[in-house]
Specification:
2 strands; elongated; about 180 residues
Amino acid sequence: MDQLVTLNRRELLKTTSGLLTGCVVAGSPLALIAPGREWAVDLTALTSSEGAALVSMARTIAPHDKLDDAAYALVIQAVDGDAGKDANTRKLVKEGLAALGADFAGSPESERVEALKKIESSAFFQTMRLKTLQVLYSSSIAYAYFGYEGEAFSKGGYLFRGFNDLRWLPDVPAEDSGPLPTGA
């Protein structure tokens, strides 16, 4: 049975530490799969400004100029989840962000790169780098952006999905090419 829960302002603020929001860019690959133009990620362990700084950090670690911020927000949501479960992770992230400075998110990319080079051997940077690579490149948003159609075995193999279009090799004689699968 559904129940209506009412919260006063103080209770609401206690339940959500931060919120990352943004808009989907029209014409982007994400616009084709997104249910709406706006997106939001609730943060429970991190503040909105910390989330924005982490988005800038993830975008600097894995820069794709036309990839929507929503893909990077998924990384921050995963980091926030880890920080919410583990006090050591929360401390690591908060101290790492403090070391980067309050103006990190608003800094030009060249300055962000230099700041990250200074801390690249730290546990904070390595944690963020790993989480960025794991989450960003396994998201459906990145798949759409890069044109990745998914694994071959779930969709009938590569032969029937346009990967049999080698133009740079000469045609192999039929007797040397082996059996071809039938149907998809």
